[in-house]
Fold this sequence. Notes:
This protein folds into 2 domains: 25-59; 62-168, no CATH class. By secondary structure, the chain is α/β, with parallel strands linked by helices. The protein starts with 15 loop residues before the first helix and ends with a strand. Helix content is 25%, strand content 21%.
Amino acid sequence: MTLSYDDLPTAPKEHLRARLQAPASRRGLLRGAVLGGIGLALGTFTLINRGAERASAAYFLDYTDTSSGPCDSYASGHTENGIQCGPSTMCRDRSCCWRYHNGAGNRIGWHKLAPGRGSAYYLHRPDACYQSRYDSWHWKFSDGNTYRCSDGWTCSSAGCYKSICPWVV
């Protein structure tokens, strides 16, 4: 059996116009260009925010030498006979340490700047560590861990006292 052109089915002409796409208008091209520019700008803001995150993380300076600086005078041989992180009160339950995502002035493993349980409030003490330049120091303790000791204040209705966030690094 041979098939001829006349034997092929034809499409209904009333649906043919709906399947054709009209050429782009100037308004449509302009709208596409504006939306593309907005998308590009938003992508640039994302890159800028990433750079700002790195810059704010660099604000917190660690004194990383575990055998000199503030550690030398506090350590008492780096054993349990010494104070684990310094002369301020250490938060043994790490309630004064920030444990969540970085942001709003807080960094994971650093002294909090936020409300605590009950009426407690925590404040970070920037530049209050060694030589009024560093925000924390590292301490190699006899348990084999190196701690970052970040200075701050723990406040309540009774007053404030100096506190330290010990964080294993």
